[in-house]
Write a structure and sequence with these properties.
Elements: H1 2-19, H2 35-54, E1 63-68, E2 71-78, H3 81-92, E3 99-102, E4 105-106
Parallel strand pairs: 2-3, 2-4
Antiparallel strand pairs: 1-2
């Protein structure tokens, strides 16, 4: 089941990146982000989400992942400090990740 979730996350992220055009906001300015970089960031995000989905310690449903120019930002909630650290370790293992900003909040079961 986890592999199916991971594959679905990767496929949906890649589909969105392929269908979302990136345009310059002004005639004389460079595009806000090169299309290649957008695809790379989307691929990194999908791979990090897939690693989280496959891992038994990290809740892929509670941890959000965003990538901008190779910098991964993790946010959301975790039940333990170990889950927070594990989510970061997994993100750093993905090829193309330059750094990880871990903003996950600890929300233990009450």
């Amino acid at each position: 089941m986890n592999k199916l979730i991971a594959k679905t996350l990767i496929a949906s992220s890649l589909a969105v990146s392929a269908l979302t055009p990136v345009y310059a906001t002004e005639k004389n300015r460079e595009p806000m982000k090169a299309v290649g970089q957008y695809v790379d960031d989307s691929t990194i995000t999908a791979k990090v989400k897939a690693k989280h989905a496959e891992d038994k310690m990290v809740s892929a449903m509670r941890v959000e992942v965003e990538t901008k120019q190779g910098v991964v930002v993790l946010s959301g909630e975790a039940k333990t400090e170990g889950e927070i650290q594990r989510a970061e370790v997994l993100a750093k293992q993905v090829e193309g990740v330059k750094s990880v900003s871990n903003m996950i909040e600890l929300k233990p079961k009450s």
